[in-house]
């Protein structure tokens, strides 16, 4: 597992989402996004399980209008923030791939497979 700095605590506000490109471009980018809900940070690979594409059309726009669920901008599938489980749409029953989050003094890190 490789540890990647994601952001400082102040860079991700409650109820917001943010996308990140991590890793060496020559080795392939690792696109992830994070959501802060109820003081916890949840991170997932930025890949729709139905289409294999990024979830957002606009930078950092991963949530529905109520900021209650993660939404795929391509076909509207809805995912639980805490579990990544798809609860509506063509990939119902599938789930986003979670990425472990580590809290440190200087901010948030994610752990990605080598």
From TrEMBL:
Transmembrane segments: none annotated. Keywords: 2Fe-2S, Iron, Iron-sulfur, Metal-binding. One of its GO terms (molecular function) is 2 iron, 2 sulfur cluster binding. Residues 4-110 form the Rieske domain. Pfam families: Rieske (PF00355). Signal peptide: none annotated. This is Rieske (2Fe-2S) protein. It comes from Microbulbifer agarilyticus.
